[in-house]
Amino acid sequence: PVASSMVSLFTDCIKLLHESSKDKLLPSHHGALWLHLMRYCECCTAPKMPEFILYSFHTEFRRLPWKEMHPDQMLMEEFFKIERGSPKSCFLFLGNVLCEINWVSVLADAWNPNPHPQTHSMIVCLLYMMVLLAKEEQLIGKEESPLINLLGQSSSLPWQLVGISSYQSIISYCNSHYPPSVILAKDAAAELIV
């Protein structure tokens, strides 16, 4: 109980820092949520991290206003590292957080005549992230799933910036990692995944 209370208090402090500084940041600056998440990726995602500690962290950290965070290439790279070598709960937590973000806002530059190269990279990262998460039953089957919401919004995203080689790589990944039942299923969630 004392440890959970400490994590709760720490989470409240992060939220207060975020609320007090979010209007003072320049567009290129990282806020408290981004810094906190990067620190989480660095310190809490080791393969042997005890699950009961992660449970406390994840339960409390879910309360933070992740919709207001602005991810970047560094954070997405951390997500992909976690997918490959960290506890599954870390991957699901971070995936859930990234699904809550307003990606239409993050990728707003894509509609400019000459979008930044970072925008191209971020849309490719988002596509890979969605493909990795879409096979996770814990996220797809969850009531009011942020992943299902993100998949539903995907028609508003600038997929024209994704190159053919990225699409080919994703199709190859789906062929080797997705069971045919997902691709052939008729339910709404499966249709969104495909």
Automatic annotation (TrEMBL):
It comes from the Eukaryota. Residues 2-103 form the Epg5-like central TPR repeats domain. Pfam families: TPR_Epg5. InterPro entries: Autophagy-related_EPG5 (IPR051436), TPR_Epg5_mid (IPR059030). GO terms for cellular component: cytoplasm. GO terms for biological process: autophagosome maturation. This is Epg5-like central TPR repeats domain-containing protein. It comes from Hypotaenidia okinawae.
